[in-house]
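Below sits my pick:
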Amino acid sequence: MDNGSYNYTIGAVPNTSSNTFATSVQSYGFTIVLPDGVTANITSSLGNTASATFFDGNAVGQSAIDGYLITETLGSPVSLAAPSAGTTSNIVTIQLNETPTSGTIYILENNSALATTVTALKSFMQADMEDDGMATYSNRVDANASGISGTSSYDFSTLLVETNELAEILIYPNPVKDIINITNTNGNLVKAEIYNLNGQVLLTKESNLTTININKLPSGMYILKLYADTASKTIKILKK
């Protein structure tokens, strides 16, 4: 999920199911690919010991990229939300140290040419997913398939469109108690959405986009995403 300001959250998305058994995770790993020269800080949401091992794209024959192999072995297994909850469980948050305007950030797919060549970069998750009274941890990510679902990449070139077309939009107040005001001198907005930090859409509005009433939402941090015909803009909103 794009949180704005070059900050991204990666989560575990459950398959749609009525299953109420919460998956228990013992360890996980995956690779994030970035444009050449871009670095990042990684924060774990499941534990406090996520390891981010940097690799230079030149070392794997791809000079246009760099990346991080992110792994974590949890001191005690951590439970994710059960599939029946339909909730994305945050795994890590990535904050870029640079502000790239081209290239892409993406999660490496297990069936990609790079992962097939450098198998250490493949995703895995050692987890117990069976409600059978036993704690049995095994890899639940197919090493020969993509292993990815949902939005798994972000193209930095879209930021140029956002900056030019939506630069004059003002959002206030922030923090906000009830009403978000939107000043849009170009009048080109077509939709607004409010997300929670798990990536769930809580509110959508497609008309009268000068105000958004969020008084029914509990206090906390949210993501406001504004859409024009050919661009979008993402802003963090703090609800008091």
